[in-house]
Amino acid sequence: MRDGEHTGLPEGVRRVQQALQVAGHPHAPVMLDGAARTAQEAADSLGVQLGQIAKSVIFKRREDGVAVLVVTSGDRRVDEKKVAALVGKLGRADADFVKSHTGFTIGGVAPVAHLHLPVTVLDQDLWRFDEIWAAAGHPHGVFRLSPQDLPNLTGALAADVVQDGPSATGQPTKPQQPLIQEAP
Fold it and tell me: pLDDT by residue (tens digit) across 31-54?
């Protein structure tokens, strides 16, 4: 892992680094030696639990074509019906849509510094952890944060947006009370 405080960073990582600095976030992006295109790759590279990876999933809202960003725990699967109930009907976002709306390629979509501000929803299951890691604008870039940092960085609320039943790891999930985090 290499510290992100040096020149020569990819453009997306520089955008994320600048957004984090403006927000007063204490942790700069770091570049991993290997790619972290999936939550599992990121968890393996960082030596953390899969659930500590805050993966960014992009959808396309059908009514207006706006990008919808769901930031979820790496060991959970997004329930599109739950997200749609919060933001409107969803469609799939292809790689071109993701790149043109976020400025990031799939596998490196950060929760901040998008080219066009998305509608953002946070998975309340991220609050199981004290420390999480998110993509930093490139498949090799990540940054450390706490779940409490997400509402401050994104202006989004936390909600139940994941599938009930087995998680992405096959482990059962427990239904939780809705957690609503108000952004300041």
Answer: 999 888 889 999 999 999 999 999
CA distance 149 to 25: 8
| Phi, psi of 57, rounded to the nearest 5 degrees | -115, 125
Residues with Cβ within 8 Å of residue 147, at least 6 apart in sequence: 54, 122, 126, 127, 129, 132, 158
pTM: 0.86
Residues 103/135, Cβ–Cβ less than 8 Å: no
- b/e 32-49 (16+ beta carbons within 10 angstroms → b): beeebeebbbbbebbebe
Helix, strand, coil distribution of the chain in percent, nearest 5? 25, 25, 50
Contact predicate 146/130, CB 8 Å: yes
Chain centroid offset of residue 70 CA: 7
Instruction: Using DSSP, state whether 117 is helix, strand or coil.
Output: coil
